[in-house]
Design a protein that fits this description.
mainly alpha, single chain
């Protein structure tokens, strides 16, 4: 029974949300279900925060490897939580947490944003390493990928125009910047749309499996 009831709730909610898109009479019910989802999501935030605190407190208590980072995590978590809930630095409790002058805004601008920029800067080295492995011309597909990447890299810099600027205007399509634009707007855009279509079909397929009760992995294993 503890597995049947969640499946029935999932099926009913899924069917109502689909009907609310096509039938105005069910639109109100669909909006109510969306509101219920927001309420449940609030409890999920509490569960997630509580689980984060529990895991890091246990790590610190048992002196597991890198337990010092857990202290930093817990300190940042509680400081951000307190500053955000109390709107410290704001005019009153109704002040937006991202308003100028609030401590949370100062933390975001001076801590979170620089750390995020640093992390993404480090990702550039991993991207360069992955590109080196992916662009090695081992076969025809890799060769095409290598040539396309090389054209786009040159087309995004003044060097591309410097190398092919001498080509007459009637054959300007052969200039590297124009080739880069064609690759981005042609094959690249077509590939992106194909991926999005595939993702959309996957979402529809998974949604139907959930509504029909065929997909029950979200309930855990049968032994739970």
């Amino acid at each position: 029974m503890k597995r049947i009831i969640p499946v029935i709730i999932t099926s009913v909610v899924g069917i109502v949300l689909i009907l609310s898109v096509f039938f105005p009479m069910a639109q109100t019910i669909g909006e109510d279900f969306s509101l219920f989802f927001d309420i449940i999501a609030v409890f999920a935030f509490f569960l997630g925060g509580g689980n984060l605190v529990r895991i890091h407190i246990i790590k610190v208590y048992r002196k597991r490897p890198d337990w010092g980072f857990s202290i930093v995590t817990l300190t940042g978590f509680f400081l951000t939580l307190v500053f955000g809930m109390l709107k410290v630095g704001g005019e009153n409790i109704a002040t937006s947490v991202i308003a100028e002058g609030t401590v949370l805004k100062i933390i975001f601008d001076n801590v979170i944003a620089p750390l995020s920029a640093t992390m993404y800067s480090l990702l550039a080295f991993f991207v360069a390493s992955a590109s080196y492995r992916a662009f090695r011309a081992k076969n025809r597909e890799a060769t095409i990928l290598l040539i396309a990447a090389f054209i786009i890299l040159l087309g995004r810099t003044p060097l591309g125009m410097a190398l092919t600027g001498w080509i007459p205007e009637s054959f300007s399509v052969l200039q590297i910047p124009n080739l880069a634009v064609w690759i981005m707007n042609g094959p690249n855009l077509a590939g992106q749309r194909a991926i999005l279509i595939g993702v959309g079909l996957g979402v529809v397929s998974m949604s139907l499996r959930l509504i029909l009760g065929m997909e029950r992995t979200y309930l855990g294993s049968d032994n739970d």
